[in-house]
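In response to reviewer comment 3 from the previous cycle, which asked for concrete evidence that the modeling workflow produces usable outputs, we include below a single protein chain processed end to end. The sequence was submitted unchanged, and the resulting structure tokens are shown without manual editing.
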Amino acid sequence: MLGKAKTRLAATVGDERALAIYKELLWHTRKIATQVDANRLLFYSHFIDKKDEWLGENFQKHLQIDGDLGQKMAAGFQIAFDKKASKTLIMGSDCASLTPEIVYQAFEALDNDDFVIGPADDGGYYLIGMKVFSPTIFENIDWSTASVFPQTVEAIQKLNQTYATLPTLSDIDFEEDWATHGWDF
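The workflow returned the following structure tokens.
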């Protein structure tokens, strides 16, 4: 994965440090996920590593489909709902401030609203959830831009659905994002 992980971050810190930060973020995400009482699905981009730290007893492992980020998320939600989930969340792996409490808050929000979104301060989101499979909210989104969150909210509103928002957190995309958390390079 050297040279492929956290490429925007690697532009200033180098490929090796970017990969190390990526691995730390994955460790954090795994820790948060295992602290939440839920069925956990894990999606791999190229192949399923059966011997990695994401133990099969804690995670149901799947391979992502080809496509843009929206198509991948829609397919992930489809799989979860096919498994009879009553409400489902997808969380990214690049939010160092995510806590189990925020994940539980997201699940609770779905008791009252159709969707829940955890906005990131860069205009995207670190978490999105729904209680009815609605893949159209991922269509016509300018991924990896500051427009992702507002375009997603607009798509939800076009469906005449309700949504709740979580606290705004930082994604780790650039060197200053990592430094903001007080972690050393």
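The chain has a mean pLDDT of 88. We consider this sufficient to address the reviewer's concern, and the full set will be provided in the supplementary archive.
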